Automatic annotation (TrEMBL):
This is Cytochrome b5 heme-binding domain-containing protein. Residues 26-36 have a biased composition (Acidic residues). The keyword Metal-binding applies. Keywords: Heme, Iron, Metal-binding. It comes from Marasmius crinis-equi. PROSITE patterns: CYTOCHROME_B5_1, CYTOCHROME_B5_2. Pfam families: Cyt-b5. Residues 98-125 have a biased composition (Low complexity).
Length: 245
């Protein structure tokens, strides 16, 4: 280190002596290759390094097994399950075509144990399928969820009624047309007409609950959607039982 500095700073031999007057040329002599052993002596203390921690599995392993017998990750872990095009046991394999004719390397050339090996992991679970009846539609431009949020908070009248009302099922039933559609969810009645074009599941699906209580269908389709929040500015009232005469 010192020789390196000497080649760059002509006045280096004096730099240490003048260190008080030229503080910017501070050099640590102990870092020199041929320098004193001060730093290494400190290493000889019994204090373990901060990492890995004293009780870590890594440290325990190092103590018990010498580094020469340490196993690689590949030896310690079972290999991941094979993708369908590489697994000869899966029915999805193209009949009559070996993996090599498909242009993919064979499992043996990849160093992956054959499926008969005790290490192989064969997945018996099917890939997740969409719940039936769930289908997103392409929304018209200007009808994204963000556009709906903007319309909701714009102050536009989305209720169509001056005050919240008590609404019986028979009154609710009268509001079953696209241009005048009400639906009840969790005891609250909403004017769903303004939301029809914004519904990610499409107008047709949403119209299935027009004029009636849609709580059950809603929960079956997407219970995670917060209808109270989505339609708060469309609320027209509360669903009440028919009046007995
Ligand atoms: C007015 C109440 C409703 C609101 C606020 C609403 C809201 C939403 C929202 C936010 C999504 C997107 C969900 C997501 O991306 O995970 C969605 C999707 C959907 N909704 Fe609704 N929905 C309502 C009522 C209904 C009803 C009554 C049906 C009837 C079956 C329905 C059927 C669907 C379907 C099929 C999807 C597509 C789900 C998908 O494939 O991701 N929705 N709805």
């Amino acid at each position: 280190m010192a020789s390196f500095l000497r080649s760059w700073i002509p006045s280096y031999p004096n730099a240490k002596a003048e260190s008080k007057s030229t503080p910017q040329v501070e050099v640590d002599e102990t870092a020199d290759d041929s320098g004193s052993e001060t730093e290494r002596e400190e290493d000889h203390t019994d204090e373990p390094p901060a990492f890995p921690s004293l009780n870590s599995a890594q440290r325990v392993k190092t103590k018990t097994s010498p580094s020469s017998s340490q196993k690689s990750d590949a030896e310690l872990m079972p290999p991941p399950s094979l993708p369908p095009n590489l697994n000869p046991n899966l029915a999805s394999r193209t009949p009559g075509m070996s993996s090599s004719t498909l242009g993919v390397p064979s499992s043996s050339s990849l160093g992956v144990p054959s499926s008969s090996s005790s290490l192989s992991v064969q997945s018996t679970t099917k890939p997740p399928t969409k719940p039936s009846g769930r289908n997103k539609v392409a929304l018209a431009p200007g009808h994204s969820p963000l556009d709906w949020a903007a319309l909701k908070s714009s102050g536009a009248d989305l209720r169509g009624v001056p005050t919240l009302m008590r609404i019986t099922p028979s009154v609710l039933k009268q509001h079953n047309k696209k241009d005048d559609a009400w639906a009840a969810f969790n005891g609250k009645v909403y004017n769903i007409t303004p939301y029809l074009a914004f519904h990610p599941g499409g107008e047709k699906e949403l119209m299935r609950v027009a004029g009636r209580d849609g709580t059950k269908l809603f929960a079956l389709t997407h219970a995670w959607v917060n209808v109270d929040f989505m339609l708060d500015s469309c609320m027209v009232g509360f669903l009440v039982p028919e009046r007995s005469s």
